[in-house]
Amino acid sequence: MADDLREKNKEAVEKQKVTAAKKLKQAETTEQIYAAKPDDLRSQLSNKNEEYVFKLNKYLLDDGFKEDEAKEAIDKMMPEIVDNQIKGVPANQLYGPVTKKAGEIVHPAKKVKKTPFWASSVDNSLLFFALFGLLYGVVAFTNKNSSTSNQTGIITLIILSGMWGTLLTWFNIQMKKPKKERPGWGITIGYLAVGLMLMFVFLGAMTFVPATINPSLNGIGYFIVAVVVYGIRFGFRRYMGIHDRGFF
User: Fold this and answer.
1) Which one, of 69, 80, 70, 73, lies nearest residue 44 by Cα?
2) Given CB 3.0 to 4.6 Å as the disulfide criterion, which of 90, 101, 137, 150 pairs with 95?
3) Tens digit of pLDDT for each residue in 196-236?
4) pTM for this structure?
5) For residues 123 and 246, is the Cβ–Cβ distance under 8 A?
6) Around 187, how many Cα atoms within 13 Å sit in the side-chain half-sphere?
7) Contact 140, 152 (CB under 8 A)
8) What is the spatial distance between Cα 82 and Cα 157, in angstroms, rounded to a whole number?
9) What's the CA gap between 101 and 59, in Å, rounded?
10) Which percentage of the chain shows pLDDT scores above 70?
């Protein structure tokens, strides 16, 4: 029994050594392939891959590439083609049809620019400013009670928009993360609840701020401000290259 166990352990160790040796050899081979000259790698192509490269070169030339441009584009692919060829993966399986790969080379996909947090916050804050401006305009037309005027002052509008824009930008980013990286719902709801409480406290405190510091506009004034700020947001999005829709 003990002899059998020792024999099995010995076989397991030998298998591990063989596996490690294979991985080391594969790594060395891959390193040599990526260090080799493209013309040398072309001579190692299988008939199937050689035909793929020939057709790809033809498609690139037909799409307006010059000879040296087509060769340069294909040369960059050679290490990957040969490396996968050794593993039994032909180029048509690696890249798909020749027409598809040629299209990707001729019309490379543009990398999506990631919008920084501060820019998204400004973008959403400007949007909320415009929305609140419209709301304040409606309130100014319908509310005859002057005791709440400081709650709808211009300073209130600016700070409230910034708070909403920043808080909901953070929330939106959390929701776009992979499920494993998202904070728990309890934490997320807690942050939102605290943020809402701070906003209500802020609105209550603004009733004690003198109108000279936090002046209110009439209904038309708020509508004009809303339109102007939305135009500023439009220009800001174009300048920063922001394409996502945000919340609206």
Assistant:
1) 80
2) 101
3) 788 778 777 777 777 778 888 888 988 999 999 999 999 99
4) 0.55
5) yes
6) 8
7) yes
8) 62
9) 10
10) 84
